[in-house]
Design brief:
The structure is a homodimer of 429-residue chains. In chain A, 35% of the residues lie in helices and 25% in strands. Chain A has helices at residues 12-23, 25-28, 38-50, 70-79, 94-104, 135-141, 155-167, 194-202, 243-249, 263-275, 293-300, 340-347, 351-369, 385-395, 422-428, and strands at residues 5-8, 31-35, 60-64, 84-87, 107-110, 145-147, 170-180, 205-209, 212-216, 222-227, 231-238, 254-260, 283-284, 290-291, 314-325, 328-339, 377-379, 400-403, 406-409. In chain A, the strands form four sheets. The first copy, chain A, has an eight-stranded mixed sheet. In chain A, strands 3-2-1-4-5-6-17 form a seven-stranded parallel sheet, sandwiched between helices. Chain A starts with a strand and ends with a helix. Chain A binds chain B through residues 187-188, 267-268, 271-272, 274-277, 279, 283-287, 289-293, 295-301, and chain B through 187-188, 267-268, 271-272, 274-277, 279, 283-287, 289-293, 295-301.
Chain lengths: 429, 429
């Protein structure tokens, strides 16, 4: 049993993580929230207390921390006696937070791949550039590190594992489709940090096709699907974190990611990109001010966390999996539908933050209880998906399926842990 | 006879001014070019010498000058013994350059209304906010100040005066239409300093209708005309300098300005404006850098002077004038067509800079010769248009007309100065 959770980051996702951790503090123990800006952490603590989210009386506390400072992070882990760290800060801090966990013995959970601020779109598989280089050290030190445990990456990796385990004898393709059919009512806004959001789409699009990496341009290839609840939606072939582990851990020749965009989003993105305003290379104004254009764009856009109160509509994110079962062709879509207004009512965040913030808390609970406390570095698809998805059903993210029998919710209540050594799971799939 | 010309500014228009002044140095004398950036002035001098543009052996020299520094500007006027100053620098420096002229006795010519960097779109008439407040001082000191002597404002004001003088008994409306049917081959660029260009369209649109100021939003009202050479073109009701003097100096109830835009320009402009990236109010990045978004946009856009070599196509700018002549309704379009490639071949600038840069040199020649040396502050429509337009015909900007007899070039060779006191011209019209 591990307990006491240190949440690093204080954006919209961290807000969800804090609320969900508070709702489960009987399992998770003390809750600490740390970021560069103390006031943001304090405002999350206030929101948790205002909503009376703590399941039982307990500690929830805000801290100021520069998470790039490994010694400071180690000291905070030690001072708060945190055995689990949930890193939902900027993707630039992953490696320093992981290092602090390795040196202190804390379990590490994150929701996105590490990025170097100066590099956009490195060589695939991206996990190989930073995270997986620490795999041996984690195993040697017995550190549990669950990588990419948000929704996508995260839940969609569990969907992929579930499909391979339970629905197919052989999988030929996995198409992860991410649709936000919600509306924030602003002229334009990004649902996450604009800097991270845009960086996803300014580089090459890497996808796994015919068992090798293929590159395309963003917005080059689209598909239109009639999806549960949100209806007919167009999405675009995009690069995304989960492809970089799924391609290594599953024996599936085609694994692609499709992100839904409206025409307006694409137009604004295209204008900004073509003008050079999404560049992370500094420019100098006529007055001699040196500044990164992307950071100026970020400064003029709405703060993503400000969108929540007005956000309406739903998200639909899932895995369209094709393959063979008992000799016949089969196709299933395993998915979740989340509602922006419901998310705001419960935890004060919009639906995108909600889908990203609930899963790492479910992961933390499974680590705390031992089910996922594997004492090594893993991606989500290397772990048994059923306890994770079952817990998420109870925590507000219902898993559903659409197959030849129609659409229905899935239950995992009957799942019993198999006597399978966790390290063998990946190779089994 | 006044002589020796100090050109202030070193952009695309200044380049044209320098070349045209050089081509007329038998009248204008020494030519001096001054701006904040000495290298830009030196590069213009080099371009003039490379093209052997000096009509006769003479002085052309580059100077470094902060034109907001009145004492420095006075000193440079004195040192260069310049009796005519052509100000084609930023619209922010007009008042300091004019002050230096008033104090030294030099004639002053500019091509755009003064602007305060912190204010966008002040109360009309705009000339009343800055320039016209110095009218009495100019008259008292006998200073010739010709305001707005570019193309628009400038030549279009002369077209208006010509229409009122020669083609109508009564004018009911003047619609100034400015079409750039050229192509620079870039994704997006502005033809002038982006800062000034965008400021024209971010404020309210003031027009003179029913003998009063009316306000509209930019891109709210459009018209489509079949114009000489450039064909069918859509233009949009816009605010513009010349309306602010024509409405005062001519007794015409409707005076409007229409700027041609393609859909792509409007889309990029709309995205930038709605995102707040055209704002002149500073923002602060997450890293604490304070910067004006518009200046960052300017920094990423192509330098307007870099467009010239690839620019193709033509401009068509003119006055569509309606009214009565001899009791009957009449409509004439007085216009110029300029060619981007011709402009580049002659003076190394694109057509927009060419149309803006030739007229102030024509004005300077008329001041030098005495025809326009009126020892007071005037707008172009207060001066006899025929010698100005006749000179422009010979300098590369041909005036044409389209009326009930078709399209043809106009000649002003037969014009003889009337015995009219210059100060009376405005009230006569």
């Amino acid at each position: 049993m591990k307990k006491n959770v240190l949440i690093i980051g204080a954006g919209g996702v961290a807000q969800v993580v804090a609320h969900k951790a508070a709702q489960n503090n009987d399992v998770l123990g003390d809750i600490h929230i740390a970021s560069r800006t103390l006031e943001k952490c304090e405002s999350i603590v206030k929101s948790v207390l205002d909503k009376k989210a703590l399941k039982k009386p307990g500690i929830i506390k805000a801290h100021e921390l520069d998470a790039l400072d490994i010694e400071a992070t180690k000291a905070l882990i030690a001072k708060t006696r945190s055995q689990i760290v949930i890193n939902v800060g900027s993707a630039f801090i992953n490696m320093s937070v992981l290092e602090a966990c390795i040196q202190t013995g804390a379990a590490y959970i994150d929701t996105a791949i590490h990025e170097d601020p100066d590099k956009v779109c490195e060589t695939p598989p991206w996990y190989g550039n930073y995270e997986w280089k620490r795999r041996e050290r984690c195993e040697k030190a017995g550190i549990t590190a669950v990588l990419g445990a948000g929704f996508d990456p995260g839940v969609v990796n569990a969907y992929a594992a579930l499909a391979v385990d339970e629905y197919f004898d052989e999988v030929s393709s996995i198409d992860i489709i991410d649709i936000n059919a919600g509306s924030h009512g602003k002229y334009f806004a990004t649902n996450f940090d604009p800097e991270i959001n845009f960086r996803e789409f300014t580089g090459k699009v890497y996808t796994w096709q015919n068992s090798q990496w293929q590159t395309n341009e963003m917005f080059e290839i689209s598909r239109t699907d009639d999806l549960p609840v949100v209806g007919e939606r167009t999405s675009y072939l995009s690069g995304h974190d989960e492809l970089h582990s799924l391609s290594r851990n599953l024996d599936v020749p085609d694994i692609r990611f499709w992100m839904g965009f409206g025409e307006h989003y694409i137009n604004v993105f295209t204008v900004l990109k073509n003008l050079g305003l999404l560049s992370e290379q500094p420019v100098r104004t006529a007055e001699g001010v040196e500044v990164v254009p992307l950071k100026v764009v970020k400064a003029v856009l709405p703060d993503p966390s400000s969108l929540a109160p007005e956000y309406t509509g739903k998200t639909c994110i899932g895995d369209l999996v094709k393959g063979k079962k008992d000799g016949a062709d089969r196709e299933v879509f395993i998915y979740n539908v989340a509602d922006h207004e419901d998310a705001y009512a419960e935890v004060g965040s919009q639906g995108i933050s909600y889908t990203a913030g609930v899963p790492p808390v479910a992961a933390a609970i499974l680590v705390a209880k031992g089910t996922w406390d594997v004492h090594k570095m893993v991606n989500v698809e290397e772990l048994p998906p059923q306890p994770f998805l079952g817990l998420l059903n109870r925590m507000g993210l219902q898993t559903s399926i659409r197959d030849e029998h129609g659409e229905r919710d899935l239950s995992f209540d009957d799942w019993v842990p198999a006597k399978v050594e966790v390290g063998k799971l990946a190779s089994k799939r």
